[in-house]
Design a protein that fits this description.
It contains nine helices and eleven strands. By secondary structure, the chain is an alpha+beta fold. It has two domains: 124 residues, 2-Layer Sandwich (Phosphorylase Kinase, domain 1), CATH 3.30.200; 181 residues, Transferase(Phosphotransferase) domain 1 (Transferase(Phosphotransferase), domain 1, Orthogonal Bundle), CATH 1.10.510. The two termini are 30 Å apart. This is Protein kinase domain-containing protein. Keywords: ATP-binding, Kinase, Nucleotide-binding, Serine/threonine-protein kinase, Transferase. It holds the Pfam family PK_Tyr_Ser-Thr.
Length: 349
C-alpha cells in the first residue's frame, strides 16, 4: 500500500497473496553476490532456478526500521512493473527473514563483464545495444512514476547469452512526487547526479528536492563506461568524483566519440536536470544511432560467468551445506524436517 506522501512503511505495506513465497519450498544454493545490506544466492523455488536475496535486518531499532522500509519498497516496485529489461519478480516473504526471489540471470553483472573484457572495449554496436536495454528499462520505471536512484554497472545483470541487460536491485527506488522531499543518502557517489548533493557538503541523510532526471545523469555515466570500458573519473575516490561533478561541473571526457553519441552523453549529464532528455527521448536517440551502425564483430570476454549449480536438486552439495544445520558432532540436522528454507539461516549469515 502506498502512503499519502509516496513512501512505503512496513505497517502500511501488504504483500499480495499471489507474490507470497512459501519458504518451505525454497532451496538455497551457492552465494553469487553480496552487498552492504543483503546477500544473493542461487537457489530453487517450486522447480525453477531463481536468485534469492536475503536482506539483513540490522542490529538497532533504527537500522531494522530502515531496512524493513527499503525491503517493502523494493517488493512493491518489483511487483508493480514488468518489462523484458527488468529482472522478473517471482515473490517475497518477510518472515522468518526478509527474502526477495527473482529470476536467475546467469550472465553476471555488467561490472564483471566489462572487467573481464579489459583492456579491450565493447564493439560500439554492442555497447549502444546494452545502453538501449538500460534506457528501455528506465523508460518503463519512469512511466510508472518510479525513480531508481542507483543506476550503476553492479545493478545491471546480463542474460546467459550475454545479449540482453536487465536492471535489478530496487532497494533505493522510490515513487516520485512533485512535492515530497527525498533523502540525498542514496545511490553510489561516482554515478550520482550532482543535485543529490548538498551545496555545502555531502551531509548524511540531507533532504532535497529532485526528480526522475537523476537517473538520466547516472545513465550517461554508465553509457560512458560502456563506450570506454574504463572507470569514470579515474584517479578519484568516489567522494572526489562526486565533489568534482557537483561543485566543479567536471564530467568524463566525451571527445573522440561520434558526434551523435557525444550529444547523447552530454545532454544526459547536463548540470540543469530540466535540460536533460527523458528516457523516451534517449531511447529514440539510441535507436536512431544504432540504425546507422554496421553489424558488430563478435567479442567474447576472457572469463564467462556460469552457474555451477544450475539444476540444484535437493540432494546437491550446494543445497545440503546451506539447508542443514549440523550439530557440533556432525550429527543430524537440528529443528524440523530437513530440506526447508529455515535450515539455511545460520550459514547464510
Amino acid at each position: 500500500m502506498e502512503s499519502g506522501n509516496g513512501f512505503y512503511s512496513v505497517d502500511e505495506f501488504g504483500l499480495d497473496a499471489k507474490w507470497l513465497i512459501d519458504p518451505k519450498h525454497l532451496f538455497v544454493g551457492p552465494r553469487i553476490g553480496e552487498g552492504a545490506h543483503a546477500k544473493v544466492y542461487e537457489g530453487k523455488y517450486e522447480n525453477q532456478n531463481v536468485a534469492i536475496k536475503i536482506v539483513h535486518r540490522g542490529g538497532t531499532p533504527e537500522e531494522i526500521a530502515k531496512r524493513e522500509g527499503r525491503f517493502a519498497r523494493e517488493v512493491a516496485m518489483l511487483s508493480k512493473v514488468q518489462h523484458k529489461n527488468l529482472v522478473k519478480f517471482i515473490g517475497a516473504c518477510k518472515e522468518p527473514v526478509m527474502v526477495v526471489v527473482t529470476e536467475l540471470l546467469l550472465g553476471g553483472s555488467l561490472r564483471k563483464y566489462l572487467l573481464n573484457l579489459r583492456p579491450r572495449c565493447l564493439d560500439t554496436r554492442v555497447a549502444v545495444g546494452f545502453a538501449l536495454d538500460i534506457a528501455r528499462a528506465m523508460e518503463c520505471l519512469h512511466s510508472h512514476g518510479i525513480i531508481h536512484r542507483d543506476l550503476k554497472p553492479e545493478n545491471l545483470i546480463l542474460t546467459a547469452d550475454h545479449k540482453t541487460v536487465k536492471l535489478v536491485d530496487f532497494g533505493l527506488a522510490r515513487e516520485e512526487s512533485l512535492t515530497e522531499m527525498m533523502t540525498a543518502e542514496t545511490g553510489t557517489y561516482r554515478w550520482m547526479a550532482p543535485e543529490l548533493y548538498s551545496t555545502v557538503t555531502l551531509r548524511h541523510g540531507e533532504k532535497k528536492h529532485y526528480n526522475h532526471k537523476v537517473d538520466a545523469y547516472s545513465f550517461a555515466i554508465v553509457l560512458w563506461e560502456l563506450l570506454h570500458n574504463r572507470l569514470p573519473f579515474e584517479g578519484m575516490s568516489n567522494l572526489q568524483a562526486a565533489y568534482a561533478a557537483a561543485f566543479k561541473n567536471v564530467r568524463p571526457c566525451a571527445e573522440n566519440l561520434p558526434e551523435d553519441l557525444a550529444l547523447i552523453l552530454t545532454s544526459c549529464w547536463k548540470e540543469d536536470p530540466n535540460a536533460r532528455p527523458n528516457f523516451s527521448q534517449i531511447v529514440q536517440m539510441l535507436v536512431r544511432y544504432l540504425s546507422i551502425l554496421p553489424p558488430p564483430e563478435p567479442v567474447i570476454p576472457s572469463h564467462i560467468f556460469s552457474s555451477e549449480n544450475a539444476v540444484l536438486p535437493p540432494e546437491s552439495p550446494g543445497t545440503s551445506s546451506l539447508m542443514a544445520v549440523q550439530d557440533d558432532l556432525g550429527g543430524t540436522p537440528k529443528g524440523n524436517k530437513p530440506g526447508g528454507f529455515f535450515f539455511c539461516f545460520n550459514q547464510c549469515y
